[in-house]
Design a protein that fits this description.
The structure holds two protein chains of two kinds. By secondary structure, chain A is mostly helical. Chain A has helices at 6-25, 42-53, 64-71; one strand spanning 74-75. Chain A contains three helices and one strand. Classes of the chains: A mainly alpha, B alpha+beta.
Chain lengths: 82, 368
């Protein structure tokens, strides 16, 4: 309590997606989130890449199925470069 | 499968590994065994050899770490990131780290160390993530059975692409992942479950929700870890909200994710004679609260209320279900029809008019 509002859930999912896409799909965010919502943003493009890899419906949108896959435990990717 | 960009590989096939520390979750001997078995997954199918050393730097250093552990790739506490490994190379190259905030185990409660280690060692050898959901190198953890694990064909192809085949006379092969509209697929069993339909084949099932156009492929064990693969028959009893799975002379009763206490049981406790070795298919008929069990060219009727097989059975399938003359591999009921699956064919049988209404491909429900 208080019950999580829809907006909270969406914000939490966005946060999850941003962390996920930064970690595994080199999403550059420079700390700002302003590019998250437009369909042609890097954020949406990275979601598309991720959806394609996992055989999900490629929408570029953060739908519940995409969030579910992002929540699954998985192998990390070491930062080989630096 | 995919190879790490730049194709980094070890330039010799005799590699060394060292276990730098242990997780408190498992006995050290179990960790040692899991790591050794994980390397064997790859040495069985290539010329690679892995030797454990105890002193001095090895090619692949193995450690349990938490949070930020100094390699610019911090772990994240329980779940989420489970482990990572570095591509072949000097120094940190090949090294594998497990997130010790996870619960590691040699069984299926928690994360199975052998399965995760085998995946990470794929990276240590130069493989990247595969988009084949049944592959070991698929990035997401799946609750496979470590005791019956076989390296999938996708991973065999990948590692042999880098290091060539094994010198063993017998060429190893592994399980493949079915593709949804593969016309060769024969379903092992099909059940309805709270409005969804599940199509079982080998260690997988497709889950079709009426409101989603696309069916979703899952491991059987990611839903029900104690169920065997290769299920032969299954049905849903909506009255009790149970689903029952059959393989050989055993059957399991489940409610949602939970396998009910006391299962598996023997099918002979249901009253089948010992001549019945396995069940081909089963379906619950809501109108009569009977379950039909199909075995060969005969079927039995089981009264779910009285919990006994009905008298005057078995009967000939073809006699009571005209048109159904082939072996029944799977069957389910929907909207007053029984859908009999025989090989790649599916017969829509009207329960009321007692005749086959349509003949379809067996994968028509999956949008094929």
């Amino acid at each position: 309590f208080p019950a999580v509002t829809e907006a909270n859930i969406m914000e939490r999912n966005m946060q999850l997606a941003e962390t996920y896409l930064k970690r595994y799909y080199d999403l550059e965010t420079d700390g700002k989130h302003f590019m998250r919502r437009t369909s042609s943003s890097p954020f949406s493009e990275k979601i598309r890449q991720m959806q394609e890899f996992f055989g999900l419906k490629v929408t570029g949108k953060l739908d519940s199925e995409t969030v579910r896959v992002m929540q699954q435990p998985r192998c990390g990717v070491p930062d080989v470069a630096s | 499968y995919s190879i790490t960009p730049g194709r980094p590989v070890w330039d010799n096939t005799d590699l060394t590994y060292r276990i730098l520390n242990y997780t408190p979750d498992m006995a050290q001997a179990d960790v040692d065994r899991a790591i050794e078995k994980a390397f064997k997954v790859w040495s069985d199918v290539t010329p690679l050899k892995f030797t454990r050393i105890y002193d001095g730097p090895s090619d692949i250093e193995i450690a349990f770490e938490t949070g930020d552990h100094g390699d610019n790739s911090p772990f994240d506490g329980p779940d989420g990131l489970l482990a990572h490994a570095f591509q072949p190379g000097k120094g940190i190259g090949g090294d594998t780290h497990f997130d010790d905030d996870e619960k590691w185990s040699k069984g299926t409660n928690g994360y199975n160390l052998f399965l995760v280690a085998a995946h990470e060692f794929g990276h240590s050898l130069g493989l990247s993530h595969s988009d084949d959901p049944g592959a070991l190198m698929f990035p997401n953890y799946s609750n496979d059975d470590p005791n019956t694990f076989h390296l999938p064909q996708d991973d065999i192809n990948a590692i042999q692409d880098l290091y060539g085949p094994t010198t063993n006379a017998v060429k190893p092969t592994g399980p493949t992942t079915p593709t949804i509209c593969d016309s060769k697929i024969i379903f092992d069993a099909i059940i309805t479950l709270r409005g969804e339909i599940m199509f079982f084949t080998d260690r997988f099932f497709w889950r079709k929700h009426p409101q989603t156009p696309q069916a979703e492929l899952n491991f059987i064990k990611s839903f029900w870890s104690s169920l065997p693969t290769g299920i032969e028959a299954a049905y849903e009893n909506p009255e009790t909200d149970q689903i029952l799975f059959f393989k050989g002379s055993k059957y399991w009763a489940l409610s949602g994710y939970e396998v009910l206490y006391g299962y598996p049981k023997s099918i002979y406790q249901l009253g089948f004679p010992k001549t019945v070795k396995k069940i081909d298919a089963a379906v619950y008929i809501e109108e009569t609260q009977k379950t039909y069990f199909f075995v060969g060219d005969k079927y039995w009727s089981y009264d779910e209320e009285r919990k006994v097989l009905d008298k005057d059975f078995p009967r000939e399938i073809a006699e009571d279900f005209p048109g159904i003359t082939q072996k029944v591999h799977a069957v389910f009921q929907k909207n007053g029809f029984l859908y009999f699956f025989s090989g790649q064919r599916q017969y829509e049988f009207s329960i009321t008019s007692k005749k086959v209404m349509r003949l379809m491909k067996n994968n028509s429900w999956l949008g094929c």
